[in-house]
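Submission checklist for the structure archive. All mandatory fields must be present; incomplete records are returned to the submitter.

[x] Identifier: Choline-sulfatase
[x] Organism: Crateriforma conspicua
[x] Residue count: 521
[x] Sequence attached
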Amino acid sequence: MLTIVVSIASQCPCHGDTTEASRGRPNILFIAVDDLNDFSGFASEEPGNFLQVIYPDPEVRRQVAGRLTPTLNRLAKQSSPFVRAYCAAALCGPSRTSLMTGVAPHVSGYYLHDRHFRLYPTLSDVVTLPQQLRRHGYFTAGAGKIFHKAVGDRNGALKDDWADAKRSWDIWVNHAQGAAGKPGRFSPPNGGLMQFGRGHQPQQETGDWKTADFIARVLESGSATATAARGRLGERRIALPPDQPFFLAAGLFRPHLPFYAPGEFFDRFPTTEMTGLNSDNLRTIVDDLKDLPPGAERFTDYRGGKFRMIMDHAKTVGGPSVETQAWKALVQSYLACVSFADSCLGRILDGLQKSEYADNTVVVVWSDHGYHLGPKYHVAKQAVWEKANRVLLVIRDPRNPDACDGTPRRQLASLNDLYPTICQLTDVPLPGPKVGHSLVPLLNSADADPVRNEVVFTYMKGNHGLRTATHAFLRYQDGTTELYDMDADPRQLSNLAGDASYAELKASLNQQLDVWLDDPH
């Protein structure tokens, strides 16, 4: 079913100048992928990537990387892939809101997506990225999940306008999301969204494919119409104006839970190849919990949570001996969803390539946060560990050959850097201080100096992670800490916070975190 709800933002300020200077600026194709961690094939050999645990055989892993994300692999070779990029918060709403507003979560207080971000006093009048572009001559439109939830205004109430359709967009189109399916053998009953198994829809009937196909048709033809299978607004059309540059957004819902994808994507990842998901590595994960401080313990699933739910259900299905089978089934489902999302991304990029806009459209592909699939005995995002906060970020500027050479950018980057980066690329001024830094110097050269010395991410009030080029320092609301040498220990298996020989470094990083929290700009 395709549900379309669109609000034309009639209450926003008038568009800016759309004269010759405006028309000469690049278009922006802005694509979000929900809950995608660092499992992109092109990043599979980066230190600490959990694919190296799942597939310890390098040749098998190479083959899996090719099957997993062929679209992203091709895009990365033609782009600037940022392989050390992080979110502001490992939860959909806070991460996306911080990116789109340029306000850090600890400043806004937006830690949960419990309500529309503009209902927070700190964000009620904030100027979002598409809103600022719109004020300065850009046509802004999109479909899918960009802000938290893909729902535009339905009944005139702000609480229903999750997409911020009234202020941020000329046209917002609501599509159904993800793909339908049925729980597999190891999917726990009564698990809510924690379900996984083969989907029963052909790819062309899934919500994510319909979103991708719609955006692709907009690009190919300059306009396209989506018909609501239900809803009040009927057919809605996006038409790209000939006299304005555009900011066109597409939000893909997979690999967000439930982990359902069309069956052909499951066939790409037979569980027999996942030789690293064994009892020894499961024991390593459990043993890794021994040096966690009290503040971190509540974020593991060991005493309750998704991973515990899956393991307990596995025992009821076949006893302790099938725990690793359940783990493999979970990972297979996630990988299938990643590959399905990659296929949808391919439809969008093919549409761009066939269009008249290809040579003047900057492509930005990002994920809103990472995702644990076992490490720290955790299956979720919601944490300040590396796996929950490391994200996909790829930028291609076809006007700049240096930004299309495929060289990995290993300098630290944050999703918060996208607001100032896009404003610089489009010659749009920032509406005020923003938490990020422009990545344009790194687009121009992979050897450029870093634009930031640290990245800070937050989950819930008072829980922060500080990531430098070499270390990760995590501090919880109760004051307890973790410290990791990310060069020597990229999987974060050895907490050094209690080691006296690291006391000076720990104190320095603690102060660095305080300084940033006091002035994130």
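[x] Structure attached
Curator remark: DSSP finds 18 helices and 20 strands in the chain. The radius of gyration is 22 Å.
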